[in-house]
Amino acid sequence: MAIYPGMFPYTRMRRMRRDDFSRRLMRENVLTANDLIWPVFVMEGENQREAIASMPGVERISIDLLVKEAREAFDLGIPAIAIFPVTPQEAKTDKAEEAWNPDGLAQRAVRAVKAAVPALGVITDVALDPFTSHGQDGLMDENGYILNDETVSALTKQALSHAEAGADVVAPSDMMDGRIGEIRDVLEQHGHLNTRILAYSAKYASSFYGPFRDAVGSAANLKGGNKYSYQMDPANSDEALWEVALDLQEGADMVMIKPGMPYLDIVRRIKEEFKAPTYVYHVSGEYAMLKAAGMNGWINEKACVLEALLGMKRAGADGILTYYAKQVAEWLKHG
Ligand code: PBG
Q1: Which residue owns the Cα nearest ligand 1 atom 2?
Q2: Which CATH number covers residue 74?
Q3: Ligand 1 center to residue 171 CA distance, Å?
Q4: What predicted TM-score, i.e. pTM, was given to this entire model?
Q5: Which of 40, 134, 173, when mutated, tests ligand 1's pocket best, judged by the most ligand atoms within 8 Å of its CB?
Q6: Residue 67 belongs to domain spanning
Q7: For this structure, is 258 an active site residue?
Q8: How far is CA 193 from CA 7, 160, 189, in A?
Q9: In total, how many domains does the chain have?
Q10: Is 59 helix (H, G, I), strand (E, B) or coil?
């Protein structure tokens, strides 16, 4: 066989893979605690914890326990948490008024965490599903259709109440049209110039959200059974770029793709096209799959989780929302 530069055996890809030192030297991506955002479920009461059946290892916790957990997350180097309230059934209404109650669970949780751990970033979810009696993210007309503009004005009230409670970042996850611009306007008008908006820009109508809906108790209520009239069709990719373009124009500081693993092509396209801070949500169903397989001894949980999250970094994500955040930060710190 003739020998040409650039060809085997001049080039042997395995040379660099032979030793740990050269593998480390050519490593392109790394996962650190700085990449993690920890979603947490908060409930009423004191010293309360509740397991979530479909998410072993994840709990709903009362605000006092959340404050402790938040401090631990901060000490592990996690930059931010994302708070999801579990609204008591009796506080849910058709119009979701509880969403902008200044003394609502989310607002109280934000104040408590910011008072105790001021340097930890606090992100809130802006959407109506934990507060509507029907479990949809917006307000519903008599035919069950989710009304866009009426919902957007409710969301601006909710986002403002979060900013007033001290949230550093508001994260609209509702997929209504025009909500980023309206929220940005209201924040500016009230002097919240530095409240960041993390837009769930490319949020797909995914079946991987099942365990989350159990966790916040919106699954049983979910009238209509799906969110197809506002969340994106999993078949689409160009549409995700269009959504991101609009959200950035309207004033988003950060954009998100959701779910994670089945949508990393979208993460890559969005990062390449816009070069904006880009996040990905490793959602509840993805957590449940890794956890279940790990608990059964079918996969090495730690290795698979770290690989899944590294894959998100490699795809172009600047950060990852994951229920594994605290666990991963511990693994990274203590091995
Ligand atoms: C609702 C919301 C959902 C998630 C975050 N915010 C569920 C949904 O849209 O039905 C899902 C998160 C997860 O599955 O981990 N606004």
Answers
A1: 173
A2: 3.20.20.70
A3: 12
A4: 0.96
A5: 173
A6: 30-334
A7: yes
A8: 57, 12, 9
A9: 1
A10: strand
